[in-house]
Design a protein that fits this description.
By secondary structure, the protein is mostly beta strands. The chain folds into three domains: 81 residues, no CATH class; 203 residues, Jelly Rolls; 101 residues, no CATH class. It is built from four helices and 27 strands. A hairpin with a 5-residue loop joins strand 21 and strand 22. The structure holds calcium ion (CA) (3 copies). One calcium ion (CA) binds next to loops.
Length: 423
């Protein structure tokens, strides 16, 4: 396996182990426009029979990903191959919406109002787990109302639709909605048939007469639904706890399989009720019980989008004015370094990196409300820190609200590392 990143770093793995990592430059690392990607020769057909590097061999399976896979994923693909599995796309977040004043996507494509849904929608403040959060309130939607979700995951499971996915939502239903049907999810974008996930009158979650768990009024819950339609199943979770693995009436490419869009919080005949939502996330695979448990319950920060890799932060002394993220890791966690007595502020300031579905990179900054920072970058060696002029000064908005900053595409190749400098 070989990965190429935007900076031109090429990493080669054999049997799941990293054997080589080098800088080949952004041009060599990218596909050449106008030329096909060939196996056994280059795009111009240079290395064909008669050339000294040509040869014969056997090939069983090939896969190409639109992002850099991590060492953990490389090892997992190798182990899966040993077990006779096909090359499987690692599960990632393909869509996330955090409702911080609008329908914008944190990952993927913004939600859209179906019809006049804006008229039953408001954005407001709430408190989740003792922390402030920006949330959306939704009313009881009619057939013509709802929120159009473009999940960005494509098709999988060997079908023409999305057959393996996990839908997660941090929601709260007020007492006025208790013991009512509450439509959560409609897989038919035209809302022409019954909704496909509900909270029912007994406050359980599910579909088709199978409802388990308890959604408590005026309480924030993290609901999760892990679909594997290849075996007709959906595993249902409340606050990280499995309440039931349900067998569905249809499977592969059937009722619960998704085309490019689906609807949130609506139903075809008014089995809907008002509620609040802080965060919704979809991933292009079936998360395990352990993975869902690791995500925990509802939080003001929303559903974790990127699992941290490794950790040194918080284990030693911290410095208030700098956090560091490196472009070279696939999932980047903040590193704070240096000595200082102001560790509390540093603990609350986090710089992380997101890979967007279009493969562009964004920085995410969480810090105390009103704190001001400049983003600085340096080359790989990290001795020449310079402010990133195109980003300018940023103001953090409190722990509940990440500030997401796209990394300028034209500058992505030259930046190697980023850090925050408190102003
Ligand atoms: Ca939110
Ligand atoms: Ca219905
Ligand atoms: Ca339906």
């Amino acid at each position: 396996m070989v990965t190429f990143d935007v900076n031109g770093k090429a990493s080669t793995y054999v049997d799941g182990d990293l054997v080589d990592s080098r800088d080949v430059g952004p041009v060599a690392a990218g596909p050449e426009s106008g030329l096909p990607i060939n196996i056994g020769q280059d795009g111009k057909g240079t290395y064909t029979d008669g050339n000294s590097v040509s040869g014969q061999g056997l090939i069983d399976e090939v896969a190409l990903w639109g992002r850099v896979l991590s060492p953990v994923e490389a090892a997992s693909l190798y182990q899966g191959g040993n077990a006779g599995n096909a090359l499987v796309v690692p599960t990632v977040v393909t869509g996330q919406w955090d409702f911080n004043g609008n329908l914008d996507a944190t990952v993927g494509t913004a939600l859209q109002y179906l019809g006049d849904t804006a008229s039953i929608t408001a954005f407001r403040d709430a408190t989740i787990g003792g922390k402030p959060a920006k949330v959306m309130s939704f009313g009881a939607a009619t057939k013509a109302q709802g929120y159009v979700m473009t999940h960005g995951a494509g098709a999988n499971g060997g079908g023409t639709k999305l057959n393996q996915y996990t839908l997660i939502m941090d929601v709260m239903f007020p007492a006025a909605s208790d013991a009512k049907w509450r439509g959560l999810f409609q897989t038919d974008p035209s809302n022409a048939n019954d909704g496909d996930l509900f909270v029912n009158k007994a406050n359980g979650i599910g579909i088709s007469g199978q409802y388990q768990g308890k959604v408590v009024a005026d309480t924030w819950h993290r609901l999760a639904f892990a679909f594997n339609l290849n075996d007709k199943s959906v595993s249902k979770y409340i606050d990280g706890v499995l309440v039931n693995k349900q067998t569905l009436g249809e499977g592969f490419d059937g009722r619960w399989a998704l085309g490019s869009t689906a609807l949130l919080f609506t139903d075809e005949d008014g089995e809907t009720a008002a509620g609040l939502v802080n965060s919704v996330q979809i991933r292009n695979g079936t998360l395990s019980d352990a993975e869902i448990a690791a995500l925990g319950g509802a939080s003001a920060e929303g559903i974790p989008a990127v699992r941290a890799v490794g950790s040194t932060a918080g284990s030693g002394s911290t410095s208030v004015d700098r956090t560091l993220a490196s472009v070279h890791a696939p999932a980047v966690r903040p590193v704070v370094s240096g000595s200082g007595s102001e560790s509390k502020a540093a603990d609350r300031t986090q710089l992380s990196m997101r890979v967007q579905p279009d493969q562009s990179l964004a920085l995410s900054v969480v810090g105390p409300a009103g704190a001001r920072y400049r983003v600085e970058s340096s080359g790989f060696i990290g001795t020449d820190w310079q402010p990133v002029d195109s980003i300018g000064e940023i103001e953090t908005l409190g722990e509940a609200t990440p500030v997401v900053i796209p990394i300028p595409a034209d500058g992505a190749a030259e930046f190697r590392q980023f850090r925050l400098k408190r102003q």
